Amino acid sequence: MKADFSIVLLRPEIPHNTGAIGRLCVGLGVPLHLVRPLGFALDDRYVARAGLDYWPHLDLMIHDTWEDYLASVKPRRVHFLSTHGEKSLYDCRFEAGDALVFGNESSGLPKDFYERYRESLSLRRTSRRTVYLLLNLPYEKARRFAQVVKIPIATRAGAASWKKTRFAAPEST
């Protein structure tokens, strides 16, 4: 499964949050971009613990500044998730090449972004807890979320079939 968007964390501070989001990115098949400064070292045990064995499979890119990110990635559009946004996630039309941008845990987006990107502050986020709840959604809710953002997701029947094939005992010859 590969979705055609990316997730950007601006100045993330909490290693296990970044690890969990990295795990989500692996599952969705999307790259994770981290924009410095980071509030932790990437070899931090909490990042590894939250990312579990998925972390080595993460398409991770680190950028020194926001401008470096824009210059190297050239996202088609950016959607900032903020309590200052005006639209709900469900009212936004995502397109290939879009980037979902999250500010840091303690202060959100940099203050100057509210003026510079007024038109792109389209996604209202009621609380940081809402974002992290997305990481722990039950299957049915995750499936509905994937439909909203147009991410292909396996059906239960497909997953059951895959499990049978994946975990079947090898045939003896």
Mean pLDDT over the residues: 75
Shape: globular
Task: Calculate Rg over CA atoms.
Answer: 17 Å
Distance between the termini: 33 Å
Tell me the number of helical segments per DSSP (H or I, 4 or more residues long).
7
Spatial sequence of strands, sheet with the most strands: 3-2-1-5-4-6
Measured by DSSP, the beta-strand proportion falls in 15-25%
Low-confidence stretches: 137-141, 154-173
Query: How would you classify the helix and strand content by structural class?
Result: alpha/beta
DSSP E strands, number: 6
Secondary structure: helix percent = 25-40%
Tell me the series of helices and strands, N- to C-terminal: EHEHEHEEHEHHH
Largest sheet: 6 strands, parallel
Descriptive notes:
This protein is α/β, with parallel strands linked by helices and 173 residues long. The protein has helices at 15-28, 45-51, 66-73, 113-116, 128-134, 139-148, 156-167, and strands at residues 5-10, 32-35, 60-63, 78-82, 98-102, 123-124. The protein has a six-stranded parallel beta sheet with strand order 3-2-1-5-4-6. Strand 1 (5-10), helix 1 and strand 2 form a beta-alpha-beta unit. Helix 1 (15-28) packs parallel to helix 2 (45-51). Residues 137-141 and 154-173 have low confidence and may be disordered.
Write a compact overview of the structure shown.
The chain is of the alpha/beta class and 173 residues long. The chain has helices at residues 15-28, 45-51, 66-73, 113-116, 128-134, 139-148, 156-167; strands spanning 5-10, 32-35, 60-63, 78-82, 98-102, 123-124.
